Amino acid sequence: MSEAPRRKLPIRWLTLAELVGILALVVAALGWWDNHREKQQEALDRAQAEHAKAAEARHAALKSTFLLVGQVGDDGERIRLASAHPDQVIQTQTLIFPSQIRTSLVETTGNPRIDRGWLEDGLRKAGREGALRVPIGIETAFVDDGEIRTDRSIYVVGLTLKNRLLRGPSVKLEGLSLAKRGVGGDLRAAVDSAWGH
Fold this sequence. Notes:
This protein is an alpha+beta fold. It has two domains: about 15-65; about 65-195, no CATH class. It contains three helices and eight strands; from the N terminus they run αβββββαβββα. It has helices spanning about 15-65, 115-125, 185-195, and strands at about 70-75, 80-85, 90-95, 105-110, 115, 130-145, 145-160, 170-180. It has a five-stranded antiparallel β-sheet with strand order 4-3-6-7-8. A three-stranded antiparallel β-sheet has the order 1-2-5. Strand 1 (about 70-75) and strand 2 form a beta hairpin. The protein is rod-shaped and about 130 Å long. The model has no long low-confidence stretch (mean pLDDT about 85).
């Protein structure tokens, strides 16, 4: 058996027009790819900038937020109050206690604090005992960036009321924590409501 001779396929050379067409297609594909990568990078940069801007806004909001911190002193006799941000200077404070404990307001100027004596008699009359959490409404006027601002919040004072054999119960203040910020309306009613729960 003899094999049929193989036919050689004719080699066809590309014309100059076809080469230019292929080259134009390659250039267009590279241009599309470069444009696509550039748009992706712009979207990534935009997202990073928005994230950084949001983080900066959160930081600025936290910086301008007023928060009291308390330092217990004199073996539980008082809690010294200060702003968590050292650039916010407390001017005056009005402290509102639950009506069952104290009906009169306490106002301080330049010496922010909570004294045990402000609570002791009322707690004795209320007949409470043991570890307690007492809500206190605090309206604070403070200076921030040269402007006087006001904060109205409810804080909870942790304390222990112990019975003493001959002298009656004694109160020992233990700490302070934020319960509610930006209280509007009647602060006394909000404090009484928090004490009732």
